[in-house]
Design a protein that fits this description.
The chain is about 70% helix and about 0% strand. With about 140 residues, the chain is mostly helical. The protein is globular, with a radius of gyration of 15 Å.
Length: about 140
């Protein structure tokens, strides 16, 4: 029920501070909170990122699931591009390298033949985060 009460960003910090999730609780909560991803307002995406905090693998998994099952290589919608721009690429690649690599490889594969410049630019910037992190290791 809590996911229905987080329509206002001022409640998110209170929620994040006071609610602890056990096991997969945060993942399950965010799956429900982010249901209907393509229709979500940007504010709700921002709140999802705040709730995920250091568990960016949850967001990565949600994106891979959404892109692979819903978009079927047709391209990205506005919310997918927005989420990719907002993700902390460095933190995701350092903390959850396998999820980051899976997402990066998938994004590169589905945009390889794309002629949409905005989409290619976002994916290139995202993947560049992986390359920057690898070169600093």
């Amino acid at each position: 029920r809590a996911h229905y009460n987080l329509k206002d960003s001022r409640y998110v910090s209170c929620f994040v501070k006071n609610v602890t999730f056990s096991g997969n609780g945060k993942f399950i909560f965010l799956q429900r909170y982010m249901a209907g991803f393509s229709e979500l307002p940007k504010r709700r995406i921002d709140m999802s990122l705040a709730i995920a905090a250091d568990n960016l693998n949850i967001i990565s998994n949600c994106l891979v699931t959404y892109i692979s099952f819903n978009l079927k290589c047709k391209g990205f919608d506005e919310n997918s591009l927005y989420m990719l721009q907002k993700l902390d690429v460095q933190k995701l690649s350092r903390t959850f390298s396998s999820e980051f690599n899976e997402l990066s490889d998938y994004l590169v594969a589905i945009t390889e033949d794309s002629e949409i410049a905005d989409m290619k630019a976002v994916v290139e910037k995202f993947v560049k985060g992986r390359n920057t992190d690898e070169s600093s290791s």
